[in-house]
Design goal:
By secondary structure, the protein is an alpha+beta fold. Helix content is 37%, strand content 19%. It contains five helices and four strands. A four-stranded antiparallel beta sheet has the order 2-3-1-4, with helices on one face.
Length: 158
């Protein structure tokens, strides 16, 4: 689906705050609120907007520590990787998971209230996935930036 300049501007704005009204968006994009509403519906239907979520301030809901984990697998056989991917996707504490090149095979961002809960999660991960050869953990001491925004260029690529 081709995206025009208005679609691209709209995508950038709703990634920053999906709760903006169409009237508020119309103040920033030279389109009517009804035109913006039609574009948003189309972007959702076409899957360009995959989902809309609420960003929760972790400090206000209880303790939370971020762990950056590098996983090394013993074998990259497709069925074993698929099993591990499914396990990671189903685990709510795994915030992000990346299949990567280099020393590690996967890099994970895990959120847990404390190290005991993190240790239990990793014990389950290794127990449920014997293909996991080893993992290393880094604890985030502070969060400088956190987000999922995809910068959408305003002009169509050539």
């Amino acid at each position: 689906m081709p995206l025009d300049r208005f679609d691209r501007l709209l995508l950038n704005l709703v990634q920053e705050d999906a709760g903006q009204t169409t009237e508020r968006l119309a103040e920033q994009i030279p389109l009517s609120p009804s035109a913006i509403q039609r574009r948003l519906r189309r972007l959702r239907e076409e899957g360009v907007i995959a989902r809309e979520i609420a960003v929760v301030d972790a400090r206000k809901v209880g303790p939370s520590t971020l762990f950056v984990v590098s996983l090394k697998v013993a074998s990259e056989r497709p069925e074993l990787l698929s099993e591990l991917r499914g396990w990671l996707a189903a685990e709510p504490q795994v915030q992000q998971a990346f299949y990567v090149t280099g020393e590690a095979d996967f890099v994970l961002i895990i959120s847990a209230p404390d190290t005991a809960i993190y240790d239990a999660l990793m014990a389950r991960l290794v127990s449920d996935n014997p293909n996991v050869e080893r993992f290393t953990t880094q604890v985030a001491l502070s969060v400088l930036k956190r987000g999922l925004t995809i910068p959408v260029p305003l002009n169509e690529p050539d």
